[in-house]
Amino acid sequence: MSENSVTVMFFAMLREQRGASEAQVTLEGPETVGALYARLFPPGAAGALPVAFAVNHAYVEAERLLVAGDEVAFIPPLGGG
Amino acid sequence: MSENSVTVMFFAMLREQRGASEAQVTLEGPETVGALYARLFPPGAAGALPVAFAVNHAYVEAERLLVAGDEVAFIPPLGGG
Amino acid sequence: MLEAAGLRVGLQAEPIDLLAGRDWAACPGAGAVLSFEGTTRDGPPGERVLRLEYEAYAAMAEPVLLALATEAKARWGLERALVLHRTGAVAVGEVSVLVVVAAAHRREAYAASAWLMDRLKAEAPIWKRELTEQGAAWRANAGAPPEELG
Amino acid sequence: MLEAAGLRVGLQAEPIDLLAGRDWAACPGAGAVLSFEGTTRDGPPGERVLRLEYEAYAAMAEPVLLALATEAKARWGLERALVLHRTGAVAVGEVSVLVVVAAAHRREAYAASAWLMDRLKAEAPIWKRELTEQGAAWRANAGAPPEELG
């Protein structure tokens, strides 16, 4: 784990696409959670989904800047209930 | 039971006032269910209550004319639930 | 107890069995099963409720409940509807009324159940006498004057 | 499972016990106990549902459910609120979610329970994969786009 990395959690269809339920990802300088998602799941690419974002178990806006050690989750459309 | 009588059912506080849960009452000529109630529980007398009326197990208006053999019920304020 | 297709209503002196009612209502087409229990609530100190006593005009109350359940089933497309009401003495904490509805989707279940309870309180010929430390009194439902009926 | 005063929420792989949840929620101050069960609905012939599979972000979902229950309790003055959600495989007819609320009066119980289900579907990080005769597919809740969150 690099000094500037975050933990990223993948669920449901995103987990299936990645073939992994979590990953350590090194931040590219100051990076927002929205930018990180676009980097990992490029817009227009197959499987890019509308998602919500969570950092450290709470919903956040796409503009939220990440810091080393954050637990990041991309939240695809929910199906609970 | 007279040829021109109805069965009257008393419930809750009306039953307690009458000291009976039902009675055979002879109709006084053409009589509505509202008139019968006013006869048995005179307005202004202690215990006269706002009631609804049922004949043969269905709610009816006070103006409903009674016929021999009807099962009449005076329905004091409800408390089910 | 009265039954019709997908409907069951009744008065009973015995305690009400939530699980039996719920199991009767659940079915493959139901995505939502909603069980409402009205329970005897205790009062504050000095007005402790000892028990309730329910009196019903059974020959009329069961048909009224069946008519309400029939209307709810048609109006909200319910799969099943069950309404059971106690008669006689009901202790604090016991269930006096159980309404279970099963529907494909939850919004219909909530709307139908709330409507059934509203109409039951306003239309079912059932009376309640409350026995507290202070004595006994007949308790009428708020918002259900008999003038609304008929 | 997370607990706070009058609140209990949790994810569980085991079947949900309605009666245990209801007994936990019932209390002397509650005149209304409302139990919502979301059940796995079968599809029409040719689209028969074999089972559902729920996946949850447990470290986030339980706090989200506790926050929702806390808000509902404060907003409607509930006595108790319980929210349990299954994870893993859930067969047709089984309960995937149980919401039990206990309140002094029924109107608060209905409003709080319906609100809790709406918010759970829109906010709890839980996903559903449906296995039918036709294959498997992730099923998103209607009206709960992730854009609404954050």
Please give a structural write-up.
- The complex is a heterotetramer, with two copies of chain A (81 residues) and two copies of chain C (150 residues).
- Chain A is of the alpha+beta class.
- Chain A has one domain (5-75): Ubiquitin-like (UB roll) (Roll), CATH 3.10.20.30.
- Chain A is 19% helix and 27% strand.
- Chain A contains two helices and five strands.
- In chain A, strands 2-1-5-3-4 form a five-stranded mixed β-sheet, covered by helices on one side.
- Chain C is α+β, with helices and mostly antiparallel strands.
- Helix content of chain C is 30%, strand content 38%.
- Chain C has helices spanning 18-25, 58-76, 106-123; strands at residues 2-4, 7-12, 32-39, 49-56, 80-86, 88-91, 95-103, 126-132, 135-139.
- In chain C, strands 1-2-5-7-3 form a five-stranded mixed β-sheet, with helices on both faces. In chain C, strands 6-4-8-9 form a four-stranded antiparallel β-sheet, with no helix packed on it.
- In chain C, β8 (126-132) and β9 (135-139) form a beta hairpin.
- The longest helix of chain C is centred in the middle third of the chain and has 19 residues, at 58-76.
- Chain C starts with a strand and ends in an 11-residue tail after the last strand.
- The relative contact order of chain C is 0.24.
- β3 of chain C pairs antiparallel with β3 (32-39) of chain D, so a sheet runs across the interface.
Topology:
The complex is a heterotetramer, with 2 copies of chain A (81 residues) and 2 copies of chain C (150 residues).
Chain A: E1 5-9, H1 12-18, E2 22-26, H2 33-40, E3 52-55, E4 58-60, E5 71-75
Parallel strand pairs in A: 1-5
Antiparallel strand pairs in A: 1-2, 3-4, 3-5
Chain C: E1 2-4, E2 7-12, H1 18-25, E3 32-39, E4 49-56, H2 58-76, E5 80-86, E6 88-91, E7 95-103, H3 106-123, E8 126-132, E9 135-139
Parallel strand pairs in C: 2-5
Antiparallel strand pairs in C: 1-2, 3-7, 4-6, 4-8, 5-7, 8-9
Helix pairs in contact in C: 2-3
